[in-house]
Amino acid sequence: MAASHMLFCFWVLLLFMNNAAGETRHYKFNVEYHNVTRLCHTRTVLTVNRRFPGPQLVAREGDRVIVKVVNHIANNVTIHWHGVRQLTTGWSDGPSYITQCPIQANQSYIYNFTITGQRGTLWWHAHISWLRVSIYGPIIILPKRNESYPFAKPDKEVTIMLGEWFNSDPEAIISQALQTGAGPNVSDAYTINGYPGPLYNCSSKDTYKLKVKPGKTYLLRLINAALNDELFFSIANHTVTVVEGDAVYTKPFVTDKLLITPGQTTNVLLKTKPEFPNATFLMAARPYVTGQGTFDNSTTVGILEYEHPSHHNHKSSKNLTIIQPVLPPINATGFVVNFTGKFRSLGNAKYPANVPKTVDKKFFFTVGLGTNPCPKNTTCQGPNNSSKFAASVNNVSFQLPTIAILQAYYFGQNGVYTTDFPTQPLIPFNYTGTAPNNTNVMNGTRAVVLPFNTSVELVMQDTSILGAESHPLHLHGYNFFIVGQGFGNYDPNKDPLKFNLVDPMERNTASVPAGGWVAIRFFADNPGAWFMHCHLDVHTSWGLRMTWIVLDGPGPNQKLQPPPSDLPQC
């Protein structure tokens, strides 16, 4: 009896250990050409596994994920697992020339990482030039086995990815813009799960349709994969309950309209109407615009279609009333600030908000646009037709090196980057007032070095140079807490008194408000080289990006792992 009892205990322990350790999940991503037709334009699109959007990656919290990426196209490529912490596995983070050299044509690379302490919706995308316009897909991290959501289990889960469609080659667009110094041509449509919808010319068949049943609860995993636009989203005559942002549970709140910036994810619960409503409801997304440049002023639409309880004796869906949602005006900054202010971390015993209460290092970064002078004997089409558009952090426009920063750091290669990134503006000015006459930026490959586990406070301040604008900033390798935000110039004496250090929202991407500031805090507990950049790709291309280098800690699990043997070479 004792022996069988011991054997039973052994099996229970083994089962527990397996549950705790998680599984290993293998994926193969073939980066391939694929012909896609939208708006009567057929274009050769860069895809993963010939799918647009790409395949979903599903794992549980605690799982190890191994993705073999094989490059079958002429372009160099990398894949970034947006929002995955990559604890000590920076080699798998993916931004080109930051953590790795790109995967060249006919080469492959294996991304190998463990999902630790995260569950919810994230996403993956290409991280070189503008390739992510079509190389993207969802990451769905389920709770550990025998764990549940902190809300009632939904009847069904649905992923909705918002994106952009260009009739012409986006690589040619950004290449030309960088050459001339002008703003790039804008997209021709927004998309819902790859489909523009019926409001565009030659597009009525390319409409996303979500079929639902009355009286059910749907978990919608919303992802903004658009290249250059923050987007409003709404479903006509329906409210949703926000329960998660960037794979962090929130205190639930109800809304009929959402704003999602590029890079962000938002999980919402949609409760359908109790009876068949005799109507079809449109879901729609269109841009929130703060800048002065041109933009794609259009709306993508999908259909929320109720399944009739009996398929007999009812109107065909063609005869049903179509109800359209009301979206905020394109410049509704008031709505945006009110909406983002509603996000609060769940902050309970199981999912605490471990916000740094004290700060070791404070940083103040200006973010915004600027100019580079026109090269001699050339004409430029940027501001005043005499310069090129640029963008910067603390007036440093970041230049990508030709060797990955993480490689240079790990192997001690000199001359790739410097560690003198300014911790505050070198020349203070009235950031949101009249812009200075000299709008030129400095160019360089500079980084900030942080000792392991430093508690960091970073205030990011928008500037009015070439127009105040909202900037969704994404930090790789980390989540951070949004402890405060406001309009005008940040006041270091008064504004910290209003910081939320109890239940601030924890995210990986947050917007610096147009003509305002945002304050974030995080512990630098993940060694490696971590990219931080605006997730409007045009601004990233112009240089609104920088790198944090976090040193190893003393413990065995606090050190950057050695590079894998198949790490691509430049």
Question: What would you say this structure looks like, in words?
Answer:
The protein is mainly beta and 570 residues long. It has helices spanning 2-21, 170-180, 333-340, 405-411, 537-542, and strands at residues 24-38, 41-48, 57-60, 64-71, 79-82, 108-114, 120-126, 136-142, 156-165, 189-192, 209-212, 217-224, 230-235, 240-245, 248-255, 258-260, 265-271, 279-288, 300-306, 321-323, 361-373, 387-393, 396-398, 442-444, 447-450, 454-462, 471-475, 480-487, 505-507, 509-512, 516-524, 528-534, 545-550. A 6-stranded mixed sheet has the order 10-9-12-17-14-15, with no helix packed on it. Strands 11, 13, 16, 18, 19 and 20 form a 6-stranded mixed sheet that branches. It has a 6-stranded mixed sheet with strand order 22-21-26-31-28-29. It is globular, with a radius of gyration of 24 Å. The termini are far apart. The model is unreliable at 12-19 (pLDDT under 50).
Any descriptors?
9% helix, mainly beta, glycoprotein, 5 helices, copper, 6-stranded mixed sheet, metal-binding, 570 residues
